[in-house]
Specification:
The structure is a single chain. The chain is mainly β. Helices cover 0% and strands 46% of the residues. The strands form 2 sheets. A 6-stranded mixed β-sheet has the order 2-10-9-4-5-6, with no helix packed on it. A hairpin with a 6-residue loop joins strand 5 and strand 6. The chain is globular, with a radius of gyration of 13 Å.
Length: 124
């Protein structure tokens, strides 16, 4: 069973930065497109960003463009989400998942092998 593990969340002030990591357990990520999603309390899960297997193609939710950057290091078997200029509305649990068909769409129905999530809280 493919398993992803997210880390790097925490409490940060508005305007601050965090880098989230998505690591694979027991398999190689290098052949998969990976997406980051988030779910805030009382809201539906939404797609934040995705990256193809080579790292050459990315996609972003409009509200995070220019602030978030997705990247991957296949040698370290990890995908990252660098989040800068964080806002209170970015507060959510952040998840990573696999897009087996590399659709590069931020539609959670196209993803599987979800991690357990990491909490990001942006507050002063």
């Amino acid at each position: 069973q493919l398993q992803l593990v997210e880390s790097g969340g925490g409490l940060v002030q508005p305007g601050g930065s965090l880098r989230l990591s998505c690591a694979a357990s027991g398999f190689s990520l290098e052949h998969y497109a990976i997406g980051w999603f988030r779910q805030a309390p009382g809201k539906e899960r939404e797609g934040v960003s995705c990256i193809n297997s080579s790292g050459l193609r990315t996609n972003y939710l409009d509200s995070v463009k220019g602030r978030f950057t997705i990247s991957r290091d296949n040698a370290k078997n990890t995908v990252y989400l660098q989040m800068n200029n964080l806002k209170p509305e970015d507060t959510a649990i952040y998840y990573c998942a696999i897009d087996r068909r590399a659709t590069m769409r931020l539609d959670d129905a196209r993803y599987d092998s979800w991690g357990q999530g990491t909490q990001v809280t942006v507050s002063s």
